[in-house]
Design brief:
The protein is mainly α. The chain is built from 14 helices and no strands. Helix 2 packs antiparallel against helix 4. The two termini are 38 Å apart. Bound molecules: flavin-adenine dinucleotide.
Length: 365
């Protein structure tokens, strides 16, 4: 992260790749850490009283928002590999002119030797690190060289199909991300190479990164993608035979949207009061026992917080349809007459969502 923000501070022209790597890597590691934390705490970690449960829920969204990680992996593969892919294509396209341009041999021969004989070029030199970290620098340099080597081999092996082989792209991207994490950690350790705690943590990261990178390299070529695709195709064909009305269909479905089973909404916290039918007993109990409800002297299901001591006679913001009562909320905020309640933050406003044709039909998602 700090290596990347440093690039921003020194006004580097293009840090799209590095920021994409930060987004994916940090969200994946954050999720892994909180998932481990919950597992370590056992049942207690699952309970609401302990902060871990909330962090667990909050972390999950980071893999989806600001560019879903699978989409970002393809971006990292394509944008990160662009120059090398263009170089290889350039050599391939101009190789027929080698008699007129013998200088081409200088690039074509090493590339051919690498692709067909497995002869790798020399690793880059990493010199600007503390003397005690030079072996780590050499290890890093070998991995950089090997990433480039595996990218070239993958391009040759998959040919043009690599453009749509997203599972393959993801493995190349994973290797690149771990390599970047390696570089960031080496850079940080280099500032303080003698701190034992930092050093031990960094050494573990280097091991972990190399392990993950080498695994990704292997899995570029050895994987279960083909049987996965066959299984997915069969499953999709089977799913297409099932009646949509028995199943939950996501709103984003381009074909079957609105044809699925209506899901119970009772467990979702919402404003108290007569919004769209009575909330369930559980919801009423939750709301009644919430700190905000207690401060309002509510002993049971209370009317809209908007009407509580605000001196306003407006209905609940929830009842104001598409506009989500923003006018009402804003007015209260401006007047400083009340604070947002906890339950207001959870208000999903199901009644304000557009209604769709309930006619069930069979279709794929
Ligand atoms: C709480 C919350 C707050 C949000 N806030 C904002 C906001 O402030 N501003 C804003 O602009 N947006 C916001 N969003 C929307 C958010 O940016 C999107 O949810 C996110 O970009 C993912 O898009 P999607 O939900 O349409 O999922 P989809 O794009 O439908 O993705 C669903 C799944 O399919 C995968 N997928 C999709 N396309 C591909 C592909 N080409 N290759 C491989 N896999 C693919 C994804 O990785 C994902 O796993 C918010 C969402 C939530 C839940």
């Amino acid at each position: 992260m700090y290596l990347t923000t440093g690039m921003l501070d020194r006004h580097d022209d293009d840090i799209m790749l590095e920021t994409a790597v930060c987004k994916v890597f940090c969200s994946e590691m954050g999720w892994r850490a909180v998932n481990d934390a919950m597992q370590i705490m056992g049942g207690e970690g699952y309970m609401t009283e302990n902060e871990v449960e909330r962090i667990f829920r909050d972390s999950r969204i980071n893999l989806i928002v600001e560019g879903a990680n699978e989409v970002m992996q393809s971006f990292i593969f394509a944008y990160g590999g662009k120059q090398l892919a263009e170089h290889m294509l350039g050599v391939r396209e101009s190789i027929g002119q080698v008699y007129r341009r013998p200088a081409l041999l200088k690039v074509a021969i090493p590339l051919a030797a690498e692709l067909y004989l497995g002869i790798k070029p020399r690793s880059p030199a990493v010199t600007m690190v503390d003397a005690s970290l030079r072996p780590v620098g050499r290890r890093f340099a070998r991995l950089v060289r090997d990433l480039s080597h595996n990218f070239k081999l993958a391009s040759r092996y998959y040919g043009e199909a690599i453009v749509w082989r997203q599972a393959v792209q993801a493995r190349v991207a994973d290797a690149a991300m771990w390599l970047y994490a390696f570089a960031c950690t080496l850079s940080k350790l280099d500032r303080n190479p003698n701190d034992p705690a930092e050093r031990d943590a960094a050494m573990h990261l280097f091991d972990l990164a190399e392990h993950e990178i080498r695994r990704s390299f292997r899995e570029i070529f050895q994987h279960t993608d083909e049987s996965m695709q066959s299984a997915a195709k069969s499953a999709m064909a089977q799913i297409a035979q099932l009646p949509n009305s028995d199943y939950a269909i996501p709103e984003a479905s381009p074909v079957a949207r609105g044809t699925g089973r209506k899901l119970p909404q009772d467990g979702i916290k919402r404003f108290p009061g007569p919004v769209t039918g009575s909330p369930s007993v559980d919801t009423q109990r939750d709301i009644a026992s919430s700190p905000s409800a207690r401060t309002q002297g509510a002993g049971g299901p209370s009317p809209s917080p908007c009407t509580q001591g605000a001196g306003a006679s407006s209905p609940s913001p929830c009842t104001q349809g598409e506009g989500r009562g923003e006018g009402s909320v804003a007015r209260h905020r401006d007047e400083g007459r009340r604070q947002k309640t906890e339950s207001e933050h959870f208000c999903p406003l199901p009644s304000a969502l557009p209604t769709r044709s309930p006619a069930p039909r069979r279709a794929t998602m």
